[in-house]
Amino acid sequence: MDGSENNFANWKESYPKGDGDNNAALLCSSGWRSEKITKKNRFICEADSCEGNAEPCAQAVEVGDKFFGLIREKRNFDAAEGACQALGGHLASIHSASEESAINQYIKANGNPTDVLIGGTDSASEGNWQWSDGTPFDFENWKSGEPNGQPGDGDAVMTVKNGGSGKRYWRDRSTDAAAAFLCVFDTCPPSTLP
Ligand SMILES: [Ca+2]
Ligand SMILES: [Ca+2]
């Protein structure tokens, strides 16, 4: 600190965050953001951007203005949604190909489980897909022939790694089927399970 009076502020929208122990101001190209002081960023007073000089969220990946965290312990749909909510989020919703591409890179770098539950469900009304986080169902990436209403109730969406190509597509599966799952958060979650 240079001791000068702080009489100027340029906080990025939604910052500073008063929760927890965010007590450092990081100067980013888009405006200031508050972060927990860590070994990585405690000596950074100024920088041209936030990229490359801080790792504000080790347990999830930041895509756009959201954070996605993979949990590889297998849960069925309801238990997975409950686990995400316990961390302050929901099962993930996906809204664009570019968002899904970034998410898939993150999944690939974290064990790349074949099946990953996300928050799509048509349990309320067959064929009327909704996201458990309440956002609009405005993007889809179904594998050819899906959704087909099976196996089981066919009411839960999993993104499934496709054999040889390694690409991921969506399939409807039983809400009773347990799989690794992806949560979405507005802010960096306190933790995710390995
Ligand atoms: Ca269904
Ligand atoms: Ca299916």
UniProtKB/TrEMBL annotation:
Can you tell which superkingdom this protein's organism belongs to?
A: Eukaryota
Matching entries from PROSITE patterns are given as: C_TYPE_LECTIN_2
Q: Give the originating organism.
A: Capitella teleta
Where is the C-type lectin domain positioned along the sequence?
Answer: 63-184
Alphabetical list of Gene3D superfamilies matching this protein: Mannose-Binding Protein A, subunit A
| Pfam families xref list | Lectin_C
Which InterPro entries does its entry note? C-type_lectin-like, C-type_lectin-like/link_sf, C-type_lectin/snaclec_domain, CTDL_fold
- What protein name does the entry list? C-type lectin domain-containing protein
